[in-house]
Amino acid sequence: MLEAFVFATIFCGFFGIILKKNLVMKIISMDVMSTGVIAYYVVISAREGLFTPIASDIQKGAYADPVPQAVILTAIVIGFSIQALMLVGVMKLSRDNPTLESHEIEKGNMS
Amino acid sequence: MTTLTLVWITFPFLVGFLIYLVPRLDRYLTLLGVLFSVVYAAQLFIEPVPLTLRLLDRFGVSLVLDPLAAFFILTNALVTAAVIFYCWRSDRTTFFYAQTLILHGSVNAAFACSDFISLYVALEVLSIASFLLIAYPRSDRAIWVGLRYLFVSNVAMLFYLVGAVLVYKAHHSFDFIGLRGAPPEAIALIFLGLLVKGGIFISGLWLPLTHSESESPVSAMLSGVVVKAGVLPLVRCALLLEEIDPIVRIFGVGTALLGVFYAVFEKDAKRMLAFHTVSQLGFILAAPEVGGFYALTHGLVKSALFLIVGVLPTRNLKELQHQPIHTPIWIALVIASFSISGFPLLSGFGAKVLTMKNLLPWQIIGMNLAALGTAISFAKLTFLPFKQQTSEERSPLHPGFWIAMVVLLGGLFAANVVYYEAYSVANVVKPLVTIALGWLAYWLIFRRLIFKLPRVLEQFEHLIGVMSLSLVVLYWMVFA
Questions:
Q1: Could you tell me the end-to-end alpha-carbon distance of chain B, in angstroms, rounded to an integer?
Q2: Which residues contact A23 (CB under 8 A, 6 or more apart)?
Q3: Is the Cβ–Cβ distance between B70 and B44 less than 8 Å?
Q4: What's the pTM?
Q5: Is A64 touching B (CB cutoff 8 A)?
Q6: Do the Cβ atoms of B165 and A44 come within 8 Å?
Q7: Closest by Cα among B84, B92, B110, B91 to B29
Q8: What are the residues whose beta carbons fall under 8 Å from the beta carbon of B476, sequence distance 6 or more?
């Protein structure tokens, strides 16, 4: 059930990238897609349990898997820095193309 | 050797960031970083046993360094060195050199990885560094081309991440070998990511615009080395798992034919070279066991070609037919074109012979057609008028260009020693016949042919849409 919602998020993001015309909306759709992927990693790591694995004297409970969580932290950071770079690029493009329609920018620059 | 490997991986990143502290020494520090890679690659060739490093158990980082990776690492080092020599006297800022070194380091890391998440990190760092280099001129066009590249690459990597976690779900490990028990969706998703990054087949149609619109040294690095970071993992997966081998070979043939088909009709020199990169990567995939040598020769020759086309007066091939080129430049152009067409005495010949020897029977027709197409399209560059121009007639060429040519073309001659068994009568005749047929076809048919192929598939939305189609196709290929 939860996995179905996560996949729905990924697909919404993906179709947003194709169907949205504004460049900033495309970047936000990509953000939605990456949120979906991050959520999927968290779902996988919660398969076995929900407790944070901390070594202590309390009795063992159902621990969550820390490996996908660690991996997806890297992916979150990379994704966020890529978006920051893209938004700077969009800021520069917006000087000459204030409406930021990807079709128009493409026609002007593909020749 | 373990310590040397770890130092080798971190060295370019450390030096790349430290360059900002001593901007005066930026070129020298970049060159130092690259020379370290050359030394390391040489060391790796003579290492008797492949080196396998593992950090933190099965689910951690795993690196594999063997002669296959050594070929790619050497390509990376030589191409980056040539690009630095080319840019030595130009007025590029410290930022450019720092990004070049970071790109070099991340490509090195991508070549060393043997697990999916380390590969993801290496590929993303590579995308960021490439974007910064593509957008270096800061014009609208450059920024749009770079943005498009970064977007397509990031979306492909998001699909790749889903595939990687499915592999983890099956095995509790991210290693390449984990593809064996993984569900078919995982293989399809990971391959989609790698096909897009490597510029293979229709997923790789972002490549022509990106490589042709960047500045020449950046195009040389992108075509010569960066796309190979997506190709080596495909080769490794094909070598590790026999089930995946036919899929990789099919894509090899497909992309070789697609690339030359577009290339023979191209009238713009840089776009033609970019389509050729798409095609030549197919040769590397078609015979995975011997892909390393082909990667080395292709990297050297493609970067030499991009640097030469960068000093030509114009990119339009029709105009170049009326404007004579300076003779030494023409000689360099002809040597490079001969090598990629497979002329004997240059290592391109040895690489082609070695690849053809390792093909499966169903691949032979397709790859020979691709070789013919390569000869036809490089006839366009070979048969250009040339004359010895005095120094008033031509624009001055800095010595850095010639040093870069010596490094790359000299490497092409020197690499012959890797596969000198290729020089037998039977082997020599076939490429010569192919080249002769190609030149004949060029003179008779293609010289006057003006045929504009549609560029629909290269539009941004279509690039993304093709990803979903490729996903479906890949899933069924893996399922079958």
A1: 42
A2: A90, A93, A100, A101, A102, A105
A3: yes
A4: 0.93
A5: no
A6: yes
A7: B84
A8: none
Shortest CA distance to A94 belongs to which of B435, B49, B133, B144? B144
Distance CA B120, CA B158 (A): 10
CB contact under 8 A, A71 and B117: yes
H or E element in which residue B61 lies = strand B61-65
User: Residue B141 burial by CB count (10 A; 0-12/13-18/19+): exposed, middle or buried?
Assistant: middle
Rg, Å, chain B Cα set: 21
Dihedral, A26, A28, A34, A35 alpha carbons, nearest 10: -150
Cβ atoms B438, B372 nearer than 8 A: yes
Q: Give the span between the Cα atoms of B387 and B390, in whole angstroms.
A: 9
Question: Distance (Å) from the C-alpha of residue A58 to the closest C-alpha of chain B?
Answer: 26
Q: Are B323 and B394 in contact (CB under 8 A)?
A: no
- Strands B325-326 and B386-387 come out as parallel
* Residue pointed to by tokens 């060029």: B442
Q: Closest Cα of chain A to B143: distance in Å?
A: 6
> What is the C-alpha to C-alpha distance for residues B29 and B33, in angstroms, rounded to an integer?
6
Residue A87 has φ and ψ, to the nearest 5°, of -65, -35
* Residues of B in Cβ contact (< 8 Å) with A67: 59, 168, 172
Kindly list the residues from chain A whose CB atom is less than 8 angstroms away from the CB atom of residue B132: 85
Q: What is the mean pLDDT of each run of 10 residues along chain B (480 residues)?
A: 88 90 88 91 85 82 89 93 90 90 94 93 95 92 92 94 93 88 91 93 89 91 92 92 89 92 88 92 90 91 92 84 83 88 83 87 89 87 78 70 88 81 78 86 78 81 88 88
Nearest-neighbour CA in chain A from B190: distance (Å) = 14
Are the Cβ atoms of A82 and B458 closer than 8 angstroms? no
User: Which residues from chain A sit within 8 angstroms of residue B135, using beta carbons?
Assistant: 89
Q: Hey, is B27 helix, strand or coil? A: helix
- DSSP SS3 for B206: coil
Q: Do B124 and B172 touch, CB atoms closer than 8 A?
A: no
Say how many Å lie between the first and final Cα of chain A, rounded.
47
Predicted complex ipTM: 0.94
